[in-house]
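Running this now, will post back.
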Amino acid sequence: MTAPATQRSAWAIGVAAVLAIAAALVALAMLGGRALPERPGPPVETLAVERTLLSPGEITLTLRNTGPDPVQVAQVNVNDSFVDFAGPTEPIERLGTAQLHLNYPWADGQPYLISLLTSTGVVIEHEIPAAVQTPPAGAGLLGLMTLLGTYVGVIPVVLGMLFLPVLRRASRTLVRAVLGLTVGLLAFLAVDAAIEGFELADGSGGAFGGGTLVVLGAGLAFLALAGVDRAVHARTSGAGEATGVRLAVLIAIGIGLHNLGEGLAIGSAYAVGELALGAALVVGFALHNTTEGIAIVAPLARDRPRLLTLLGMGLLAGAPAIVGTIIGASVDNAALAAFLFGVGVGAIGQVILQITPGLRGAAGRALDAPAIGGVAAGIVVMYLTGLFVVA
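Update: finished.
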């Protein structure tokens, strides 16, 4: 049998196996449940509040059923007072969403405890620590989020890239130390993003896997960035000085995906009134994110990229913060945010893997005094500059 015929035979067997498995699963779903007894005990009812919108005289809750059984909201209580509300007339099915519009004259800055009473008597509570009017969507909000993302993302990264002329005059040992600094910076960002991602996943209600979303995002981003690296390497193969540029592009992509999650958190905080806009916010993020620009240009100490290439890398790393702030202010979905933070973690992990060979010295060792000192300095710098971030 020829090779093409063998391949066709293998494909046919594989398709037949998939169809047989699918048919068995459908039959099991349709017939298997009838052979099992009814579940004892009361229904399991769980609702997660995915978003809270406050407008004058009204509170709107976006609910998602994260439990196994349908849920019907029968009554709503706000601070021990029953309130009129408008919502779905049919029960919310598993993973389904619905909006409740509460007719309630809330006061700015006051805390509220909302209790949802289901048709079976289960009480589900949601707390608003400090009520603040949700900013209306429109050109004004879009412009503000774009400006905010530029302040905390694009400008600091571009400022950090101005260190490139200094690195070009540095010794090989100092360049290796700066690469170690880059690894330390990225490692800190990865850990910080993972912590924030898992915290958001815990508050998402677990409808889409909770913390698994962070792991899923990290795995997909790690593999995707590996594919990007392979594609860029194929395009630049044979160009002797392309290695530094390729690595800088990967670092910019990794930092950009992290800044997407960071922007999402900033936009969400603004939407619920937890973000203090002002000079302290701008200066804090400028100090913190300027180091990201240094990380991008660290591999370029021996390269001569064009100015447009450098600007493109700066936008690649900083502009996702703008996208993140817009999404965060308009969507505010904890599950999506957790997934995107996981994406940042995976991308940074792939970048660290690519940088590590560049830490090797003349003796072939990656962990010597300059490299270890650089990694430690990067972690310390990110920690200290993070203290200035007041968001």
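The longest strand covers residues 47-55. More later if anyone needs it.
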